[in-house]
Amino acid sequence: MKEQTLALIKPCAIAKHYQGLIIHDILEAGFEIKAMKMLHLTTEEARAFYVVHKEKDFYEPLIKFMTSGSIIALILEKQNAIADYRQLMGKTDPKSALEGTLRKKYAVNTRHNAVHGSDSLENAKKEIAFFF
Ligand code: CMP
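A: This is the predicted complex of the input protein with adenosine-3',5'-cyclic-monophosphate.
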């Protein structure tokens, strides 16, 4: 059965003009883009989106980063979309990401890691509802 996931292209990738390349890679990997929009998160919105990380030491710098510029939010659809998009993204830290993954190709470091993707069906539903 087809599944949907929420993908974000982060400010670091947009600042480097990687958004076209990332969208190309997503389409080449067989995902259908069901919705897409560019927006600039407020601090309150970024805090709410990443609330699960609020106790982590990287939370405040992450919020600052995610509100530092525009992002692109996408709803991606395909069979097994959640796991397949996480595989396409690669590991959070681009140094550990496999060759050919989005983070290997476009990320700078663990925080400035170019893209986000939902990690479960439950979170995909929540994250899609957050943006669309
Ligand atoms: P993302 O997949 O959007 O989910 C949470 C984000 O927090 C993650 O990508 C990174 O941008 C950031 N993050 C996760 N772990 C760390 C870390 N150890 N140091 C800095 N930033 C992190």
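The mean pLDDT is 98. The pocket of adenosine-3',5'-cyclic-monophosphate is lined by residues 53, 58, 62, 92, 110-111, 113, 116 (CB under 6 Å).
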